[in-house]
Amino acid sequence: MSGAPTPLRTPGEAGGAGAAEPSGGAGRPGAAEPSGAAEPPGGAESSGAAEPSGAAGTSAAAGQDRAATSVTRPEPGRPGRIRRIARGTRLWYGRAVVTAAVLWLVYAVVRWLVSGRWHWSIMLDVVPPLILLGTPLLLLVAAAAACGRRRPVAAAVAGAALILALVTGSGLNWPALWREPGPVPAGALRVVSLNTQYWAMATGSDRLIALLRSRNADVYLLQEHVGWTPGLGEGGYWPLEDDAELRRAFPGYHIARRGELLTLSRFPIVAQSPVGPGPALTFGEPPDFGQVFAREKVLRTDLAVGGRVLSTYNVHITVPLALDNLNPFTDFDHDSYLRRKHAWRQAEFEALERDVAGNTHPAVIAGDFNATAAMRPLDELRRVARDATPANPSFLPLSWKFASLGEFGEDELFNRDLPFFRVDWAFTKGDTTLHRYDFLPTDGISEHRMQELRLSL
Fold it and tell me: Can you tell me the distance from the alpha carbon of 12 to that of 30, in angstroms, rounded to the nearest whole number?
C-alpha cells in the first residue's frame, strides 16, 4: 500500500461528501464516474439546480412591477405637465422681453435723431428723462428672468437703450457725486429766476412777492408776469400795470419789462433789448399784447455792477404744445399748430445763441426753456455758455410738475408734490465764477421751482 491515505473531510467542508471521489483517487485509471456524480440530496449542486425556477419567478415579479410603474410614472426624458407649462411660459416671457427691449431701443434712437429737427418730434420728446432711464433699467431686470439665448439678447438690447439715455441727456448731475460746494464768498451776487405761473394767479400775488423778498436777491428774472383768462388759450393774456406796487415791494430796484418778462435789479440798467424775431415778423404792426406775449421770449438787460457791465438774459422759450390742444377727436389742425410752435422755438433759440455768442460782457442766462435735458435745442447754447448744473448739489435736479388751473382736468393725475421734469435752466458766460446753484421750493405758488445762483464777477 504505497499510495497516500485520502484525508477525511466533513460534509460541510469544501470537497466534502458532495464532492467525494473513489478511494482510488481522481487520477486512477478506470475509476467509475457515476459513483462520483451521485450526490446526496440537499448538496451544493442540488441547491444550484433549483435556481432556474426561482429566477423565473423573480423575473416575472419584476416584470409586473415595471408594468405597474409604467402606468403612473412618465417615460424617462419627458417632463411633467407643470414643467412643460413653466418652460413654455418662460419661453413666451423671454420673447416678450426681447420684443419690448427692441421696440424701446427703436423709439430711443428715433427720438434722438428727430429731436428738435421735426415739428412732430415733440410727441416723442415729451417723455421725461426719468422714464428714458428707468425703462431700460426695468428691462434689464426683466431680462434676468428670461431663459436660453433670449436672456443675453434682451440684456444687450436694454443695455444699449440705457447707454443711449445716459449719453444723450439723462439729466443726471454727475459732479454732484464728488463736488462739495464751498462757502459763498462775501459780496457774491444773488440772482433769482422763477416762472411765476401767471403772477401767482392760483394763490395771489401777495404770497409771491413775500417769497421773492425772502431771497433778498440782487437780480430777479421773472417770467409770466401777466394775467390770463382760462379758456381763451393764446388770446387770453393781458398785461399787468403794477409798477407802483412793484416799487413799493422792491424799493430801490430798477425795472425792465417786455411782454411777460420782468427783470428787477439793484444795479442800474444801462441797456435793455428784446432778443429774437419779435412780433413784427409774424403779426405785423402794431402788435397787441397777446402777440407780444407770444413772440417776445428773451429780454436782455445790461447792468452796471461795480464798474463793469453784466448782461442778464430773462428767458421763457415758447411752450412746444399745450395739453388742451391734443384732443385727436376734434377738427383742430394739429400739424399746423406743431409746425408753428416748432418754428417759433427754433427762432428763439437761434437768436439767443447768436446774441450770447456775440456778447463781450459776462452774462447770466436763466429762465424757463421749456426743454428737458434729452432735447437737442439746448446743445447749441451749451457751446457758447457754461451750464450751471455742475454747481447744483442734487444728483438729479428737477424743477417742474404739471399743475393745471382746473380747465384741463388733469390735476388728479399730474398735480403732485414732487416734480418729474426739468425745464428750467441757467447758464453763465465770460469772467464769472459760479459758487452755487440751487432749486428752491415755491410752496405751491408756482408749478416751477425757483432757481438761485450765487456768483462773483
Answer: 28
Give the span between the Cα atoms of 270 and 190, in whole angstroms: 19
Cell of 418: 414732487
Reported as type and span, the H/E element at residue 363 is strand 363-368
Instruction: Please state whether the predicted TM-score (pTM) of the whole model is above 0.85.
Output: no
Average pLDDT of the residues in 282-288 = 65
Distance CA 341, CA 370 (A): 12
Question: Is the separation of the CB atoms in 46 and 39 below 8 Å?
Answer: yes
* Chain segment 196-249, per-residue pLDDT in tens: 999 999 899 999 999 999 999 999 999 999 998 877 767 788 899 899 999 999
pLDDT (mean) for 173-185: 89
For cell 425757483, the residue is 450
CA 129 – CA 172 distance, rounded (Å) = 9
Q: Distance between CA atoms of 397 and 388, rounded to whole angstroms?
A: 11
Contact indicator for 397, 439 with CB cutoff of 8 Å: yes
In the sheet with 254-258, reading across from the earlier edge strand, the strands are 254-258, 261-265, 219-223, 189-195, 450-456, 433-440
Point out which residues pair with 456 in neighbouring strands: 433
Amino acid identity, residue 60? Answer: A
pLDDT, residue 390, reads: 95
